[in-house]
Design a protein that fits this description.
Elements lengths: L2 H15 L34 E10 L3 E2 L2 E2 L6 E10 L2 E10 L13 E15 L4 E12 L9 E11 L6 E7 L5 E15 L2 E14 L5 E16 L4 E12 L2 H10 L7 E11 L1
Antiparallel strand pairs: 1-4, 1-14, 2-3, 4-5, 5-6, 6-7, 7-8, 8-9, 9-10, 10-11, 11-12, 12-13, 13-14
């Protein structure tokens, strides 16, 4: 592993380790197309049948970052997402609304629905091993006018997690429509109480990308660390201000991310506020 790679990974682990105060589970999902966990904790006083879950989440962010790539520039982006689950099965609809769409050539900027994703999944757990798992399918529908991503794509994914300290998760995504690409993601998270029922949620991920669909990339790719302050307003609604830092894990990834992003950047500090309604 390159020296720069080792430094980034060590920095990532240091930031995550800062949150080790009390033991709790960080349930906060990032706004970047989260893996759907159908059997999330059910709030008291459910408004719908017991076996049915529903969650409406809207995030207002300073930038759209996905797997290290910057897919917006100098605009507010809005990520509405709706998840409906039943006995482990879930359907999730996610969208990217760019309030000042950046196009090439310049001059064609406007409020635009740039991406819509559909995720179907199944989640369950194996209690003796404290193991939880999800598997599913994602359909990406994007506007390819920027030249950043094709107009559509599909992936299969599997996520394994352990219900132990730092809640480690390992996810594998395989591209099945456009070509041959794999994305591997290792994450940890921790949450601890800071005031009444408020919690400070820390999380981080590192990834490895193998892509033979476009170019020839195979290396450690991007890391991401985040901190969010979750503030429940009542038993159904919560607000979470959040800040994140995305960075390449190798010099090769730096060149890859710079080439695939809008603008000339390869690392990003960004954030926003998340409104979550669970019923």
């Amino acid at each position: 592993m390159r020296t720069a790679t080792r430094k980034n990974v060590l920095s990532f682990m240091l930031v995550i380790g800062m949150g080790l105060g009390t033991y709790a589970h960080a349930e906060e999902a990032t706004p970047e197309k989260p893996v759907v966990q159908a059997e999330a904790a059910k709030p008291a006083g459910k408004l719908i049948p017991e076996d049915l879950t529903a969650d409406l989440n809207v995030s207002f962010y300073s930038q759209y970052i996905w797997r290290g790539y910057g897919l917006s520039k100098n605009s507010l982006v809005i990520f509405p997402t709706l998840t409906v689950g039943y006995k482990g099965f879930a359907a999730n609809l996610w969208a990217d609304l760019d309030t000042d769409y950046y196009s090439t050539p310049p001059g064609d900027k406007s409020f635009k629905l740039w991406e819509t994703d559909l995720t179907l999944s199944y989640s369950n757990s194996y209690e003796p091993w404290k193991l939880n798992y999800s598997l599913g399918w994602i359909y990406y529908d994007t506007d390819g006018a920027q030249g950043i991503t094709p107009s559509s794509n599909q992936e299969l994914f599997v996520t394994l997690g352990l219900d132990v300290l730092l809640k480690p998760t390992f996810s594998v995504y395989q591209e099945i429509e456009l070509g041959h690409a794999w994305y591997f993601n290792l994450g940890v998270s921790h949450s601890f109480a800071v005031y009444k029922d408020w919690s400070l949620d820390l999380a981080g991920t590192v990834s490895y990308y193998y892509n033979k669909s476009f170019g020839n990339f195979s290396d450690f790719h991007d890391g991401n660390i985040s901190a969010g302050l979750k503030m429940p307003l009542n038993k159904h609604l919560s607000i979470t201000p959040k800040v994140q830092y995305s960075f390449p894990l190798s010099s090769k990834a730096e060149r890859e991310i710079r080439a695939g992003s809008i603008g000339d950047d390869f690392q990003y500090v960004y954030g926003g506020i998340i409104f979550d309604l669970a019923i």
